[in-house]
Amino acid sequence: MSSGAEHIEQLPAGHRHESLDEQVRRRGLKPITSVADLVCEGIFDTDEELDEFLAYTYAARRSDLA
Question: What is the tally of structural domains in the chain?
Fold first, then answer.
């Protein structure tokens, strides 16, 4: 089994990893203030696609209980 340290990317000299706060600031991201911020139209083309997704999700959640 490998350790996580083997997968750390080496940065060139003089570079450092940005903190999460720095990345958020650089990208201009804003916090989610309401569930309405997550609404995205057109994810499912039809009601049938949505029903299939929900059925799959419910089944997957129940399978973890066994």
Answer: 1
